[in-house]
Amino acid sequence: MKNWDLEINYGIKTGFNEAFIIDADKRNELLINCPEADEIIRPILRGRDIKKFNAQFANQWIINTHNGIRERKIPPIDVKQDYPAVYDHLSKYEDALSKRLDKGQHWSNLRNCAYLENFESEKIVWIELTDQPNFALDKSAFYLNNTIFFMTGDHLKYLLAFLNSRLCEWYFDKIAATSGAGTRRWIKMYIDQICIPFPDEEIESKITGIVDLLNESFDMKLYKSLDDEIYDIFKLSSEEIDLLINASL
After folding, report:
1. Are strands 148-153 and 123-127 parallel, antiparallel or unpaired?
2. In sequence order, what E strands does the chain have?
3. Which residues of 57-79 are buried (b: 16+ CB within 10 A; e: fewer)?
4. Chain-centre distance for alpha carbon 82
5. d(CA 67, CA 79)
6. What single-letter DSSP state applies at residue 53?
7. I need a labelling partner for 175 at 20 to 30 A (CA). Which of 1, 50, 109, 163 fits?
8. pLDDT tens digit string along 103-126?
9. pTM score of the predicted model
C-alpha cells in the first residue's frame, strides 16, 4: 500500500481528555452560553466506536481549541476572548492542562496538528490494537481520538473491502507484531506492506457496490460475497480458499 497515493495519520492527542472530550449535555450547556462555540465543538469517535465497515457515533464531542494551521496562516484560537463559556469550562482543569506535554501556545490550546483539516475529509478509520480487521468508512467528518488511525486518499471503498477481508487478516497475521494479549498492531509500518492490486473500473465498481450495502447494514452473507470477489482477483483455488478460511489466526 506504500505505492498508493494515501496519507495515514492518527487521531488527536489532547493530553487531558477529561477536559476536552465532552458529552452531549455538556455541549448543549456550552452552546446555550456561547452559541458561537458550535464551530469548534466537533463530533469525535473513540476506539470503542469503530466496528467492521461502520462507526457508531456515541454522542461524544471534542473541544477543538486548535493551535492554528501555519500552512494556511490560521492563528491559534484565543479561547478566553472568543469562546468565554468554553474558557470557563477549561479553567476548571487549568492546573492539569498547564502541565501537559501535548499542548499548544496557551494551556487552553491543543497541540499542533499539521493534518487537522484531514479530519473533515472522507476517510477510513481503525483502531491500533484488535484481534481482527475492523476498518470503517467515515463520511461524516468525525474527529478522532489518539487510539485511532485514519487514511485519506482515493479508492477508499475499494481499499476498505480489502482491509476488512479474510485474505488481508491472514496476510497481516504473517507480517505484523502482536501485543502479547491476542491482538495485532494495525499500524502504518505494517499497513504499508499489505499487497492490494490497483483495480480496473469494472472490478472496483462491483466491489464498492457491495461495500455501500455493508456500510448501510452489516450482513454476513454480503461480507462473504465480498471475500469471494477478492479471492477471484487473486485467482485462488478452492484449496487455497479453504486454507485461508480454516487457518488459526
Report:
1. antiparallel
2. 6-10, 21-23, 41-45, 60-63, 123-127, 129-130, 135-138, 143-144, 148-153, 184-185
3. eeebbbbbbbbbbeeeeeebbeb
4. 29
5. 11
6. B
7. 50
8. 999 999 999 998 999 999 999 999
9. 0.92
